[in-house]
């Protein structure tokens, strides 16, 4: 059995070929797709976060709205760039969204990806302390977030408060019990996956890795997952961790599918450069359901993960994205033992 959800980057453009022409379109359609995904029996609705771009950015209003409109599906991010975040304010927003959804929030965070602007986090008021860099700052923001999500008091109460305080030091409110265990780190390397395990976060791995050893992407990612689980055991954590991978999967069952993705099948991994380093990008799976079942059965990382996030082409509209989800759930998942 495997949890299956979607991951939306939330693009919009005024192109006549786009079903999402504005930020309002994307936000409303994201909510509608999450509702449709829950009705289809999918397990998760996840949203990417990018700043200074015509894509989804501030995640918590959207997550809260999705939580209010659904009752079962997991809701999450993949991922929030921690360079931009005030961790205390973030803990308040996350706690509220998690309580609205009755504990269904799965919060994916990371150091962040290449930006639309130079050092965009500086415009948000965040500057790495002297002797550190932006990656250090992201990890420090993460450390603070994880600490306050534990729910322990740390702030000295006023001797003359506006309202009566409980005894002792005060914590961030609202506090949502258990949210600390539902934080995921988007890791781009094997070493970062090991660090993620030692921090007690779940592992979120994408369709790219910012390293390349020459082996196929799915094997490199499977090694990343194995090293994460080994480090988790070494760290002595008592709960079972979760692991997600993302894939672009498009079963071709109609003329419209063929027009959109019929040319995507048969390709392989791509190797390129990201942030000045060599990176390996996973393939797109497109083809008939029978062929995709055979190909995905050989994907070692998908087999090793408990959660699969399907990257969806949100600009093609809610109906088409729901169709892709339904086809994966009905035509692929049973044959692969995921359902």
Automatic annotation (TrEMBL):
Stored SUPFAM superfamilies: Bacterial luciferase-like
The Luciferase-like domain, residue ranges: 9-255
Annotated GO CC locations: cytosol
Matches recorded under InterPro entries: Bact_Lucif_Oxidored (IPR050766), Luciferase-like_dom (IPR011251), Luciferase-like_sf (IPR036661)
MF term (GO), any: oxidoreductase activity, acting on paired donors, with incorporation or reduction of molecular oxygen
Protein name as annotated: Flavin-dependent oxidoreductase, luciferase family (Includes alkanesulfonate monooxygenase SsuD and methylene tetrahydromethanopterin reductase)
Record's keyword terms, sorted: Monooxygenase, Oxidoreductase
A Pfam match: Bac_luciferase
Record keyword Oxidoreductase present: yes
